[in-house]
C-alpha cells in the first residue's frame, strides 16, 4: 500500500514540476520569443484551461479503461506534451505543448485520488490523498527550483526535456507499483454525472476555484514581483520558489491530517488566513524578509485546502466519485487560469506587480463565504458531511461486492 501511494506521488512530482516551473521561467521565455510578461502568462492560463477541460474529457474517455492502465496512458500523454514544449520553434507551439501536457493533469489527479482513497480505511482517506499530493508539493521544493535554475543558466528547453524524463520515471513507477483495483460494479457514466446534481459538490468545486485561484493570483507573477518590487536578484527567484514549495508541503500534510478530523473548520481557518496573508503581501512585498515569510504562508495556507476539498467532493459524490474528483482538479486549474488572467489585467492596467495580491485576497475571501454557505445548507438539510461520507463508503463497498 505505501509503495502504491509512492508511485502516485512520483507521477504527481513530474506533473507538479511542469505545472509550476513555468512561473520561474516567464522572463526567459518572454525574452526568447519577444513577448510581454502578461502574454507569457498565457502559458500558465493555457495549461490551467487544458486541465479544466481535459479532466472531464479524459476521465469520460477512460470510463471503461482500468484505472491503472488509464494512469499509465495519461503519463504517456504528459511525456509527449513536454517533449513538444522542449522543441517548440514558436510561442504558439510552446503553448500547444503546454496544453497537451495539461490534458493528462486533471484526470491523473482525479483518478489517482480515488485510487489512493480506496487503498486505505475510511478514516484515513484525506491522509492518503494528501500523500499522493505530496509529490506535487515536493516538486515545488526540488523539481521547480532545479528546473528554474537549469532554465536560467542552461535554457528553458532543457528544463522541459528533464520534465519529460520525469514523466518516464512516473510511468515506470505506476506500471510497477500500483495494483489493479477492481472497478465498482454497476457504476456507469450516468452515475458519475449524477454527482453534479448535488449542490454540495458544486459548492466544493466553487470553493476550489476561488480558494486556490487566490494563491495563483500572487504566485503566477512572483518572478517580476520579486525582482522589480522587492529587489531580489534574478537568481533569488529559485529560492523563493523553494520557500513556496516548503509551505505547500507543510500545508498539504496538515490539511490532510485535520481534514479527516474536522474538515469544514480546517477550510474556515485556511481560507480566512489565506485572504488576510494575500492582502498583506501588497505591503510585505516591499521588504525582502517579510516577503519570504509571506510566500511560505501563501503556499502553506493555499495547499492546506487541497486535501479537504478533494475529500469533500469524494464524500459527496455518492459512490461514483471518479468524474467529480477529476473535475475538481480541473476546478483548481480554472481558478489558476482565472487568477492568472485577472492578475495580468491589473498589471497591464498599470496598477503594478503587487496588484494581483488584492485579486487573490478577494478570491480567497469569496471562497470562505462559500464554505460558510455550504455548512449552513448542510445544517439546514440535517445531513452532516460525515453521514454522507459513511453512506458513500457503504455504497462503494456494496458495489465492490
TrEMBL record:
SUPFAM superfamilies: MFS general substrate transporter (SSF103473). It is found in: Cell membrane. The chain crosses the membrane at residues 41-61, 73-96, 102-121, 128-148, 154-178, 199-224, 236-254, 266-283, 289-309, 330-352, 358-377. Residues 4-379 form the Major facilitator superfamily (MFS) profile domain. It is a multi-pass membrane protein. GO terms for molecular function: transmembrane transporter activity. PANTHER family: CHLORAMPHENICOL EFFLUX PUMP RV0191, PURINE EFFLUX PUMP PBUE. This is MFS transporter. It comes from Streptomyces griseoruber.
Amino acid at each position: 500500500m505505501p509503495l502504491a501511494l509512492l508511485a502516485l506521488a512520483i507521477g504527481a512530482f513530474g506533473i507538479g514540476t511542469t505545472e509550476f516551473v513555468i512561473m520561474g521561467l516567464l522572463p526567459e521565455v518572454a525574452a526568447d520569443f519577444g513577448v510581454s510578461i502578461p502574454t507569457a502568462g498565457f502559458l500558465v492560463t493555457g495549461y490551467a484551461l487544458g486541465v479544466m477541460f481535459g479532466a472531464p474529457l479524459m476521465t469520460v474517455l477512460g470510463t471503461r479503461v482500468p484505472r491503472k492502465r488509464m494512469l499509465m496512458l495519461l503519463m504517456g500523454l504528459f511525456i509527449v506534451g513536454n517533449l513538444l514544449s522542449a522543441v517548440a520553434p514558436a510561442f504558439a507551439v510552446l503553448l500547444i505543448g503546454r496544453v497537451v501536457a495539461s490534458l493528462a493533469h486533471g484526470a491523473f489527479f482525479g483518478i489517482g485520488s480515488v485510487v489512493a482513497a480506496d487503498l486505505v480505511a475510511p478514516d484515513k482517506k484525506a491522509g492518503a490523498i494528501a500523500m499522493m499530493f505530496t509529490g506535487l508539493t515536493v516538486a515545488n521544493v526540488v523539481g521547480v527550483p532545479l528546473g528554474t535554475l537549469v532554465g536560467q543558466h542552461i535554457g528553458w528547453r532543457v528544463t522541459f526535456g528533464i520534465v519529460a524524463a520525469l514523466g518516464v520515471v512516473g510511468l515506470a513507477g505506476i506500471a510497477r507499483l500500483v495494483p489493479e483495483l477492481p472497478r465498482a460494479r454497476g457504476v456507469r457514466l450516468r452515475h458519475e454525472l449524477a454527482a453534479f446534481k448535488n449542490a454540495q459538490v458544486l459548492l466544493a468545486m466553487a470553493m476550489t476555484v476561488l480558494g486556490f485561484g487566490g494563491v495563483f493570483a500572487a504566485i503566477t507573477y512572483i518572478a517580476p514581483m520579486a525582482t522589480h518590487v522587492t529587489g531580489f536578484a534574478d537568481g533569488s527567484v529559485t529560492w523563493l520558489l523553494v520557500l513556496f514549495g516548503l509551505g505547500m508541503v507543510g500545508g498539504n500534510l496538515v490539511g490532510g491530517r485535520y481534514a479527516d478530523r474536522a474538515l469544514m473548520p480546517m477550510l474556515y481557518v485556511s481560507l480566512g488566513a489565506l485572504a488576510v496573508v494575500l492582502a498583506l503581501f501588497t505591503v510585505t512585498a516591499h521588504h525582502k524578509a517579510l516577503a519570504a515569510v509571506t510566500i511560505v504562508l501563501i503556499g502553506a495556507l493555499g495547499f492546506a485546502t487541497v486535501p479537504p476539498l478533494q475529500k469533500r467532493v469524494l464524500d459527496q459524490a455518492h459512490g461514483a466519485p471518479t468524474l467529480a474528483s477529476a473535475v475538481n482538479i480541473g476546478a483548481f486549474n480554472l481558478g489558476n487560469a482565472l487568477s492568472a488572467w485577472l492578475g495580468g489585467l491589473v498589471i497591464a492596467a498599470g496598477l503594478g506587480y503587487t496588484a494581483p495580491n488584492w485579486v487573490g485576497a478577494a478570491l480567497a475571501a469569496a471562497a470562505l463565504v462559500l464554505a460558510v454557505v455550504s455548512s449552513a445548507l448542510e445544517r439546514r438539510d440535517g445531513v452532516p458531511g460525515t453521514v454522507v461520507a459513511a453512506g458513500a463508503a457503504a455504497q462503494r463497498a456494496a458495489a465492490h461486492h
